[in-house]
Design brief:
This protein is α+β, with helices and mostly antiparallel strands. The protein is built from five helices and eleven strands, in the order ββββββββββαααβαα. Strands 2-10-7-8 form a four-stranded antiparallel β-sheet. The termini are far apart.
Length: 218
């Protein structure tokens, strides 16, 4: 396959490559005509779009969600999300994704997204989210995108995408390690942001008491 050939030099020996279609159900989003009433209304059913994906490793930004009226929900029922579904951008910013939480279960996904529903007897949803977020994997995914003014994915491309799948027990160990790492990163970011917020106050204090805090040589 030339430049699109997957390369996993670091993949554990027990991890075999399997096409995603054998691990999960992949579905495209609704046509734009079904989302004609999508807007920034304060009530209704949230619809995940590309701009909502990518808060943290695979979270959702909820500050600018758009919604459809409850009256439209029935005709959009087959696009309802469940906990542990993955939502991927299929046009433009390919590679951005989110892992659906219990809070987001029952929401919908939009036209520019694909939904991946893992068979969790075969693959852990968080593991698959970490895997598809891995830079070498995202590079390979982009290489397989359909050419055009805006690169895009469809269900066929994603179904045929190879996934390195270690045993389920090993997947859960990987998820545990990665989650602990993400927690440590978040804690360090919180410390950095706290120090940044203190910087103006520290400077004010130093300016008020220049002699007390002056740097002295020797």
């Amino acid at each position: 396959m030339g430049s699109t050939q997957m390369r996993f030099q670091e993949t554990p020996a027990e991890a075999g490559l399997r096409r995603l279609q054998y691990l999960a159900d992949v579905a495209a989003g609704p046509s734009g005509s079904l989302l004609g009433n999508l807007s920034n209304r304060p009530d209704g059913v949230p619809v995940l779009s590309p701009q909502d994906l990518g808060d943290g490793p695979y979270g959702v930004r909820e500050n600018e969600l758009r919604r459809v009226p409850w009256a439209d929900y029935q005709k959009l029922g087959r696009f309802t999300l469940q906990e542990d579904d993955l939502v991927l951008v299929r046009q433009g910013s390919i590679g951005r994704l989110a892992l659906v939480t219990a809070k987001q279960s029952g929401w919908l996904y939009g036209s520019s997204c694909l939904r991946v529903r893992p068979n969790q007897e075969l693959v852990s949803a968080p593991f698959l989210a970490y895997y598809l977020s891995h830079p070498p994997v995202q590079k390979s995914l982009l290489e397989r995108a359909l050419p055009g003014t805006v690169p895009s994915l469809n269900t066929q491309v994603l179904n045929e995408f190879p996934v390195a799948v270690p045993p389920l027990k090993r997947q859960l160990q990987i998820v545990g390690t990665m989650t602990a790492l993400e927690d440590s990163i978040a804690a360090q970011h919180a410390i950095v942001e706290r120090l940044k917020s203190l910087r103006p106050a520290v400077l004010d204090e130093l300016m008020r008491k220049p002699q007390q805090h002056a740097y002295r040589n020797g």
